[in-house]
Design goal:
54% of the residues lie in helices and 7% in strands. With 213 residues, it is mostly helical.
Length: 213
């Protein structure tokens, strides 16, 4: 992380504007892609099922949950590029003021909302919606030949349990990463401590002064 702080102003500006441009385009493409991928393939009009036609070239976007997820991932990746770009251009390498501290706190809040709110919510929408990972769908069951291990009881794990395990694992990993980042960021921008050489000693065991022989 200290490498970012050690970049000179020109490299910081070039990298910041490049990330800002690419990230903004990625966010726009991802949002449009996910939006049009959510259009239904058909709809009922007067009791008759007809195809839903989009008159623009965006109508060629596949209408499938995998396509929606792809658009969302592109948008999230672009948003992170924008966040890094904004920090490079307006925070990193500059003296910290109350305005910059408040802005950095807002960016941090946005990141927490994204990682602990929006992404878990979209995962639940996907798993409970298109994937239909419900308690009624069985993911794994213990074979009858091994049922004696559990006193001949039937043991089955539903897709709903798998969904919850994925959600819990994600939150634990992201929380751990956030704590680690918070610890590492305390040393951001600090210079490495200079190694202190041991003083030379005279034959009598006393430190030699500069200029002495």
């Amino acid at each position: 992380m200290n490498r970012l702080a050690q970049l000179d102003d020109s490299k910081r500006r070039i990298g910041g504007f490049a990330l800002l441009s690419i990230g903004t385009v990625a966010v726009a493409i991802g949002i449009l892609w996910a939006h049009y991928a959510l259009f239904p393939k058909t709809e009922f009009v007067g009791g008759v099922e007809i195809d839903v036609v989009v008159d623009t070239f965006l109508g060629n976007i596949p209408r499938h949950w995998a396509s929606v997820t792809l658009g969302q991932l592109v948008a999230v990746t672009g948003s992170q590029m924008v966040v890094v770009a904004v920090l490079l251009l307006g925070v990193i390498g500059k003296p910290m003021t109350w305005a910059r501290a408040g802005f950095t706190a807002f960016v941090t809040w946005f990141q927490f909302v994204l990682y602990f709110g929006i992404i878990p919510s979209e995962w639940l929408n996907l798993s409970q919606g298109p994937l239909s990972w419900t308690a009624q769908k069985e993911f794994f069951s213990l074979p009858d030949s091994l049922s004696f291990l559990l006193l001949n009881n039937d043991v089955a794990i539903s897709f709903a349990a798998v969904k919850d395990v994925v959600s819990m694992t994600y939150n634990m990993v992201v929380l751990g990463a956030a704590i680690l980042f918070a610890i590492k960021v305390q040393d951001f921008g600090k210079s490495e401590p200079k190694a202190v050489s041991e003083p030379k000693l005279s034959p009598y065991g006393r430190p030699l002064m500069k200029g002495s022989r």
